[in-house]
Amino acid sequence: MRRDNWPGLVLSLLAATMALIVARVAPAVSPLLVAIVLGILATNIRPLPDRLSPGLAVASKRLLRMGIVLLGLQLVLADIAALGVRMVVAVA
Question: Taking a C-beta distance cutoff of 8 angstroms, is the pair 62, 54 a contact?
Answer without folding.
Answer: no
